[in-house]
User: What shape does this take?
Amino acid sequence: MAKKLFNKKLSRHCEYCVHGTASEYANEVLCKKHGIVEKQDSCRHYTYDPLKREPKKIKIENNFEPQDFLL
Assistant: This one.
């Protein structure tokens, strides 16, 4: 599981950086180092924060029978 969180092939975006905070009003990030920047930007101060990344939602099929829930 940890390999998926810290994949080396993840693109560097300010929206996943420790120094950035998502803006409520626009498609921008408020950066402590560079001010207001686009979400897709990155700089040399980039540090990945795995808690800012939202995992993809998994669709669960509802193919259950009543017998599946009996002990």
